[in-house]
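ok so I'm stuck.
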Amino acid sequence: MSVSTSPLPRTWPRENQLLAALPAADLERLLPYLRPAPLPLGAVLFESQSPMRHCYFPVSGLVTVLQILEDGHMAEIAVVGNDGCVGVAILLGTRSTSSRAVVQIAGHAYRIDSDAVLSEFSKGGPIQRVLLHYIQSLMAQIEQTAVCNRHHSIEQQLCRWLLMSLDRVPSNKVSMTQELIGNMLGVRRGGITEAARKLQAKGLISYSRGNIIVPDRAKLGAHACECYSVVKREVDRLSSPPPRGVVL
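replied:
not stuck anymore, here's the structure
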């Protein structure tokens, strides 16, 4: 396991919600193995069927997890921001996955070698509990995304995608072309254009030159299907600390 030789500012890792959920002693155990890593726009953190050598704990930016078909078509199955960790398949006993992780909004992360995170995970305790809860919430996101893409309109899918993205960035703006959003959702650009036009006509978004601004997230949430709220409730439930005296 490689260990960082340079000290890390003690406050920065806690900008990631998983690391922030750890008791101080458990975070201290991880600190020597955490290394700051930039997340440049478009960077591929891991590729389908390729070895996964690191996990990433974003503190800013947004990473999308994509499933790629043989003909090149793709669809987003999950998004990860400072709420989570990229590369959790490592914790499930595999060093590769069928998906691709790409930086959708530039930011920064803390990177940890796979051997180091596996070693700490295997010791149990709060580190294992926090990461297992995150894996469960990630599974809920993937499952609900599949249902939404199958049964709900493109307009509803766009609402869900915007809300989930905004939950993970510190602003009410997402910079993304309609073509790229279409790739994320697995639909034609024309469908996204029409859905965005309808949302803009209702005053739910403002769209210009690749920038989508959501002036009132509550109104957009009220217009979305139940898929967003289902995932949000599960994430909030699993990220809450256990009741005092309860060991999970």
